[in-house]
Structures are given as structure tokens and as C-alpha cells.
TrEMBL record:
Molecular function GO labels: alpha-N-acetylgalactosaminide alpha-2,6-sialyltransferase activity
Identification of the protein by name: alpha-N-acetylgalactosaminide alpha-2,6-sialyltransferase
Disulfide bonds: 125-263
Pathway assigned to this chain's UniProt record: Protein modification; protein glycosylation
GO terms classed as biological process: protein O-linked glycosylation
Xref: InterPro entries: Glyco_trans_29 (IPR001675), GT29-like_sf (IPR038578), Sialyl_trans (IPR012163)
Amino acid sequence: TDLVIQPLLYFCFSPRNTTWSGTFFGREVSNAGTRKSPHCRHPLSLAIQKHPHFRALFNLSTPVLLSGGLFARELWDSLSQYKAPYGWQGLSFQAINSTLSLLNDSESSKLFAASGKPLPNCVRCAVVGNGGILNGSRQGLNIDAHDYVFRLNGAVIKGFEKDVGTKTSFYGFTVNTMKNSLISYGNLGFTSVPQGQDLRYIFIPSDIRDYVMLRSAILGVPVPEGPDRGDRFLKSKLMNTNFGDLYMPSTGALMLLTALHTCDQVSAYGFITSNYWKFSDHYFERIKKPLIFYVNHDLSLEATLWKDLHKAGILRLYQR
């Protein structure tokens, strides 16, 4: 369960108004999660505070969003002790600074600011993984009923609307997982990343290439260097990438942890459960394929964590 408290950096982009924000695990001071609303029967922050184990693992006081104005030498010195995606060890100060200096919009301090709509009294979030448990689940309407919906990687919607819904508020990825999803799942319906007026993209910088891509996306120019040279965000050429030696939580875990640190209620759909072997690896696969446990992700740890958080009443894990 140490997965909950790992510091991790990532950035959020709204194509509608080119607003960017960078994110730490923590809670936005202005977010609904710190309010004790009478209309929110089960705010997860209260459930965390009451739990003897998880209350020591969650840090809900640290601001969630890292804007350009917070990038100072002290922060650099602190995060340079950790390898990406937890920090900036071995990365170029100039490269990081040139990207973060672009995150100076006033909305960069609020994850839910892109739509311009007032926050509901109780912020309800659905995080939709791509697990095969969703195939035939008929959870689409339940997913879309949430205020915000997080999706990730090969988020195929067409043809599976009744199972996974149609609403997307946030789409999360690393450059590597995004490109690999386009390569691997293109023939299954994932031919481009989700797009929409109020949709925001969450970049997870697992290496310097993510910062380079992020900066190019903000400026609307092709990537100037590295393995993605010439690429444009949303118009990326497909390519294979080498797997690095970094362990990190899965993209689904990162999106779920994001929601747990920003929302009042969180429901997890399409995540690994104890009976994962009954279902295909992904819900959009035409032929059943077993879930593969790659060395760079500890899916067993994640499965235990989701089960424990569900049991503690901190999140609702969809199970069959």
C-alpha cells in the first residue's frame, strides 16, 4: 500500500483554452474534497481520516497542482533526488525549466477548472480502466452519471458505449503508453486519442521525452529532438519504443490515485479484481486474452490496494 504515498509528477492540458497544469499527489486546496458538504454522504477524505491504516498513507494537505510559479531551486533540489516519474534525477534543469515556465496560467492551480462550470457540492469521479471485466457489464450509464470521468491508454469507446459510457473529462498517458496503444489497439478501434471541447489531457512524465512532447504540445509545434522528433501531439506518427528499467505504478493506478486525491467520491471500473482470470485482458478485444503481468508494474500490489480501499469505503471498485 505504499503505492498511495509515492510522490509523482504529471501535467494536465486543456485543448479548449490551452490551459496547462502540473500535478503532485495531494489535494487541491480549492477542491471539493476538503468540504464537509451535507449533500455528500460519503466523502472519501472523511473515510480516510477515520481509517487506522490509510490515514497515515494519504497526504491530503499538499496542493495537487504544480504550476510554473512554484518551480524554484528548492523544489528542484528536492525532486532531483528521485528518478522520473517521481522526480527529476538525471534530467536537465534547462529542459524542465523551459517546460514548467509555460505553466503560468491562473487556472493552473485547479484540476477541475477547464469547463468553467461551478463545482458540484459533491464531486463524483469515475476512473475507467481497460480491463476485460467491463465487456458485457452494461455500466455505461452509471459511468456517465459521474461529474468527471477519467480514461487512459487505449480507451476504445465506439461499439462499447453500453459497457463503458461515452463521457471523457480526463485522458491520462505517458508518451510511451499513448503511442504503444495506438500501435497495439488501432485495429481494435483506438485510432486516435480522445478529443473534446472540455476534455483535458494528463501527461505523466516518465522520462525527458515527455517534457519535450509536453512543451511542443503547449506551443503547438513539432517535437524538435529525440525519438519523437517531428511529431505533433494528436497527430503523432506510430513508432516502437524501448522499455526502460524503471518500475512505476500502471497508468490506471496513477489516474485512480489522482481521483482519490481530488474527488469526494471515486468509483473504479475496469480495474484488476481477485477473479481477473475470468475476463480478457482488455474489454475491447474480440478474442479473449489473459492478463499479462509485466515486470514494470506490480499488478498484484495494485489489486490488493484497490480491494483494501474498497473494503475501507474509500472507493467503490466495480466487481463481477
